[in-house]
Amino acid sequence: MEEDIVIKELDQVVVRFSGDSGDGMQLAGNIFSTISATVGNDISTFPDYPADIRAPQGSLTGVSGFQVHIGDGTVYTPGDRCDVLVAMNAAALKTQYKYTRPQATIIIDTDSFGPNDLRKADFLTDDYLGELGIDPDCVVACPITTMVKHCLEDSGMDNKSILKCRNMFALGMVCWLFDRNLELAEEFLHHKFGKKPQVAEANIRVVHAGYDYAHNTHAGVPATYRIETHSKVPGRYMDITGNKATAYGLIAAAEKAGLKLYLGSYPITPATDILHELSKHKSCGVITVQCEDEISACASAIGASFAGALAATSTSGPGICLKSEAINLAVIDELPLVIIDVQRGGPSTGLPTKSEQTDLLQVLYGRNGESPMPVIAATSPTDCFSAAYMAAKIALEHLTPVVLLTDAFIANGSAAWRLPKMEELPEIHPHYATSDQRYRYTPYQRDPETCVRYWAIPGQEGYTHILGGLEKDGKTGSISTEPENHDLMDHLRSRKVARIEVPDLEVLGDKDDAELLIVGFGSTYGHLLSTLKELRGKGYKVALAQFKYVNPLPHNTVEVLNRYPKVVVAEQNLGQLAALLRIRINNFSPYQYNKVKGQPFVVSELTEEFEKILLAPNRTKTGLTYEDNIIA
Fold first, then answer.
1. C-alpha to C-alpha distances, 459 to 299, 305, 456, 462, 502, nearest whole angstrom
2. 598, 356 Cβ separation under 8 angstroms
3. What is the number of other CB atoms lying within 10 angstroms of the CB of residue 408?
C-alpha cells in the first residue's frame, strides 16, 4: 500500500452494484457480501432486478442492481442510500444515481458511455454527469471493458466470454477500496465455477487486475476503508438468503421430528430457489418433486403428509390462489402441511421480481368455508430459518396446514447467519395416535385440551381410517351431513388453531412510556427498528411491536396495542394488518402508513412521517373513519 493512502475505519458502508441484467451484478454483489460476512461483518443485501428475461442491452428497463450494507455491529436494512455506486453503463448511472448519498463515490466503465449508450439511456447531451448534477470529483472513471480485454487477450476465450468478466474487475476495485482479502474471492470463484476451471481462472485474474488497477492509480480517492468487527457471538457463520434459510429450517425440522421431508412445488418467482436448494439435499432424506402445476404441487404434498412425511409446498401469491382448494382439503383432513408464500407485487402477474406484503388477507381468509390456519411471517433473511422451523413444529404438533409468509425482499436478500446446533432447537413431537387407540382408532379423536386430532400413519395395523373432502362425523369418521356435527367440527377446527401457544408480542424501545407505538409484521422489522432508533435519537419516546405470529395473535396483543396513546401500523399494502387488528380489537383505530411500491421502506421517510404523528395533538379513538387514519 502506498504511504500516501490512509486506511480509515468505518462503522458501516453501503455499496450498490448496477448494470445490465447480463453484467453479473448479482454475482459481484454476492461475492462482496460473502467476503464481508466471512470476515465477521454483519450484512444486509437487497437484489433489485427486472422481470424481463433479457431486456435490450443498455436499456433503462434492463438495469439490475444489488445493494449491500456492511457494518461492524448489527445491520438491520440494506440502507436507504449507497456510499459507493458501481455503474457499468449509462443506463445504470441514469437509473441508480438516485440511490446515492451526496458525495458518494461512483465507479463507471467509460467504455459503456459512448454516443449510442447515452442515447439508449435517454441522455440529451454528452455531458451526462452535468445532466445528473454529479460532481466529477466523485467519479472514478475507468475503461473497464478495455482493461478486461487486455487482461484476457491470451486466455483463448472468445470476446463474449471475456466481456462476461467485466463485473469481476469492478469487484476487484471495490475490494481494494474496502481493504478486502482477495483469497476469499478466489475461493468463491473456484467453488462457483468448479466444473469450468478456465472460467474460474479468468475471473480470478480479472479480480486481481481490478484490485491492482485501483491500487496503482488510487482510484482517485485519498483513502481506503476497513469495517472492523467489534462484537460477534462465537460460532460458524455464513452469508445466507431467506430462501436458503427457509430450506434449511425445513430440513432441520424434519431431522428433529425424525421424518422425511417432502416438497411439492412448481417454479415461480421469487420462490423457486427453495425448490432448487432442497433438491440438493437428498442425502438428508429430502424428496423434491417439480410438479406440472401449482394444484398438483400442493395435492402431492398433501398425499405425502397423509403418508407420514413432513410435507411442504412453496409458491408466491398467484400460486396461493391456485392451491386454495387443495389447501382446504388439508384443513378439513387436518393434516400437517407447511405452505410457503414468498410474496411479490400484484395483483395478477403484477411485479414478479418486486416485494410486497399484500397476501396477508388472502392466506387468512382466501378459502371457501370456515378454514382457519396458523400464519407466521418471517422478519428477516436469517429469521426465515426459525420461522420455517416453527411452522413445521406447529403443523406436526397441531395437525394443521400452516402458512409461512416471506417476500421477495427477505427471500432474495441475505445476511450473516450463525449456524445453530441441533440441540439448541426446540423439540418437535408429532401428535401421533397412541397405542391405547389401536383397533379403536377413528380419525377425529382429539386431545380434549388442545382439540388436536391424533395422527395415524397408513399401514399401521389397527389404525385403518379414511380422510377426504366431505365433512366427517367427529366420532366415527364416516361422512356426515348432520347440521349439529358440521357446526361442532367447524368450531373444533377453529378452536384448535386459536389454542396454539405462540410467544407474547415483544415491545422494543420505550415500552413503559412511549408516546407512539409502531406496529408492523414480517419483513419490515429492520426498517421499523431503524426508524425507532432514529426517533429515539431525536429525543422522542417510541416503541415497536412487530408481529411474527399473525394467526393466532399473541395473547397479549390487546393489552399491548391499547397501552399507548398513539399507534401507527406500517405495512407494504393498503392496510391489511390494520384491518385484521380492527376486527380482533374493539374500538381500535390506529394511524396507517401504507406503501405499495415493490421496494423496501425508506427509513428517512418513515422517520419524517412518524415524527408528524408524534407532534400532532392526541385525539379520541372513537368516531374516526378509515380515511381519518391514512397518513401515506
1. 20, 14, 9, 9, 34
2. yes
3. 30
Lookup result for grid cell 400437517: 336
CB 4 within 8 A of CB 223: no
Q: What is this structure's pTM? A: 0.93
Enter the DSSP assignment of 421. Answer: P
For residue range 396-432, list pLDDT tens digits in order.
999 999 999 999 999 999 998 999 999 999 999 999 9
Q: Give the DSSP letter of residue 112.
A: G
Beta strands per DSSP E along 244-372: 261-265, 286-290, 310-315, 337-343
* Nearest Cα residue to 284 out of 242, 257, 255, 249: 255
CB 552 within 8 A of CB 503: no
Question: What confidence tens digit (pLDDT) does each residue in 522-547 have?
Answer: 999 999 999 999 999 999 999 999 99
Residue of 339, 344, 419, 424 lying closest to 375 (CA atoms): 339
Q: Burial, 174: exposed, middle or buried (Cβ in 10 Å; 0-12, 13-18, 19+)?
A: buried
Q: Is 266 helix (H, G, I), strand (E, B) or coil?
A: coil
For 68, the grid coordinates are 449491500
Distance CA 611, CA 327 (A): 43
593-630 confidence digits (pLDDT tens): 999 999 999 999 999 999 999 999 987 655 455 555 66
Task: Using 50 as the pLDDT threshold, list the residues of the chain that sit under it.
Answer: 1-3, 623
Contact 414, 41 (CB under 8 A): no
CA dihedral over 192, 193, 199, 201, signed as positive or negative: positive
Cell numbers for 45, please give them.
443485501
> Per the structure block, which three cell numbers stand in for 609?
412521517
Give how far Cα 384 sits from Cα of 20, 242, 439, 572, 617, Å.
Answer: 30, 6, 41, 18, 39
Supply 502's cell numbers: 405462540
How far apart CA 98 and CA 255 sit, in angstroms, is 47
**Cα–Cα distance for residue pair 332/329, rounded to 1 Å:** 5
| H or E element at residue 389 | helix 383-398
